Amino acid sequence: MDEAxxxxxxxxxAGGLAGATVALTGCSSTRAAPAATTALARARPxxxxxxxxxxxxxxxxxxxxxxxxxxxxxxxxxxxxQQQEPxxxxxxxxxxxxxxxxxxxxxxxxxxxMRTGGEAVGPVVTGSVEYxxxxxGTPLIVVLGHQRCGAVEAAHKSLRGGTPLPGNLQAIxxxxxxxxxxxxxxxxxxxVDTMARAQVTLTATAxxxxxDLAPLxxxxxxxxxxxxxxLDTGVVEVLDGAPS
Length: 244
Prior knowledge:
Elements: H1 3-25, H2 37-43, H3 48-64, H4 74-80, E1 88-92, H5 100-103, E2 111-115, H6 123-136, E3 140-146, H7 150-161, H8 169-186, H9 191-209, H10 214-219, E4 223-229, E5 236-240
Parallel strand pairs: 1-2, 1-3, 3-4
Antiparallel strand pairs: 4-5
């Protein structure tokens, strides 16, 4: 598919999703958006670098404890009730200690958040990550792994020992196999941590280069950042893809 064809496809997808939203919300979609919506649009970071900078600053506040708790009140709820324009999309682990909205000190309507065990991906997850950039111009995607990831550890043990996990947990093991294989090749004192980092970089690279997101990345309209969260310190470390 050529560049024009991909752009047409994104336009068609955006129109279809918007139509579905109207159908689901019924009469509420006919009400005028709050007057402050224009202010929301002005405040939203519009470039990958600006969006990334906002997350970096939020994480610094999380680490220091000087939190702003922005946009978490009834006024914000009313403002975004009819329209959302998140400036970032975060794919992170299901771990209860890694809530993206808190560790980046963000508010209601700021982030699309997808959470899977070990950031395992598949068509539905990838489509969910693509939603913001392809339909509303979200300029930033962050793939966020973390320290002492239980899903990665379980997958590592399963693959190393050749023992499948029960039920659908095995689907996570299958999705994390490339990261396991990369970690085995790299070696190191902590193979689980190496695997967790490998999963981030492999996933970010795959998103950055897929047929629908790659044109946005090439134009500078989107950045895909691989990052790693320390449970001990609260610091988000950038592994790759930080916009300049």
